[in-house]
Amino acid sequence: MTWISANLDFILSLTWRHIALASPVVLLSLLISVPLGRLANATGWGRRLIVGGSSLLYAIPSLAVFVILPGLVGTKILDPLNVVIALTLYGVALLTRSASEAFDAVDDELLTAATAQGHSAWQRFWRVELPLAGESLLAGTRVVSASTLSLVSVGALIGVQSLGTLFTEGYARSFVTEIVVGIVGTVILAVVFDLVLVALAALLMPWTRRAKVRKASGRRRSSQDTTTTALATVPDLAVQEGRR
Questions:
Q1: Can you tell me which residues the record assigns to a coiled coil (predicted)?
Q2: Predicted TM-score of the model (pTM)
Q3: Under a CB-based contact definition with an 8 Å cutoff, are residues 124 and 116 in contact?
Q4: Count H helices, E strands: the chain?
Q5: Model confidence pLDDT, tens digit, residues 89-111
């Protein structure tokens, strides 16, 4: 605790740097993956090309990307932009498949009905496809968020400061407290990001919350009906037992 209180400003600074690196990655991954997933779902060959390519991209080790990327985009190796670009590529690779599957799960009959009502392809996407795919997209985004917050720490190996800096410095000095603070801080950020995403989804997609309430209400009614039926049969069983 003494070390934590003495270095609290440093820890908070690293925390804010971690947030500043992870936040744009999650947002950009979602904004890029949604149109890519929709495009991949439009044609069979497009799905194989886009989803297959993104899966291949995710297989590349993150540290190798951090080292190679500055030479490709012309940035300095310690530039935080390298981490943002690299992790956005990983986020897109991870979320594109989820987006494609989310759009593929939308009922074709609903799309046909929307077209019959005069919706253009653009209107159908915004008013039908995207809302119906929203819950699956949220699930994929939550996975990307957790993955990104973890991978941001790897940037510390090339000198980009984040909570991962506590890992590298702690290992270098064999100081367990510093390592534990870095791990706990990263886990807390992952939980906070997840809660924020869930809250935003509830705000932007209120229909999913109402659907869950209806399902829960339906289950309660079903349970109550079953209990009522069971109680109603008790007198009949008692009468039959008395006759025997």
A1: none
A2: 0.79
A3: no
A4: 11, 0
A5: 999 999 988 898 888 888 888 88
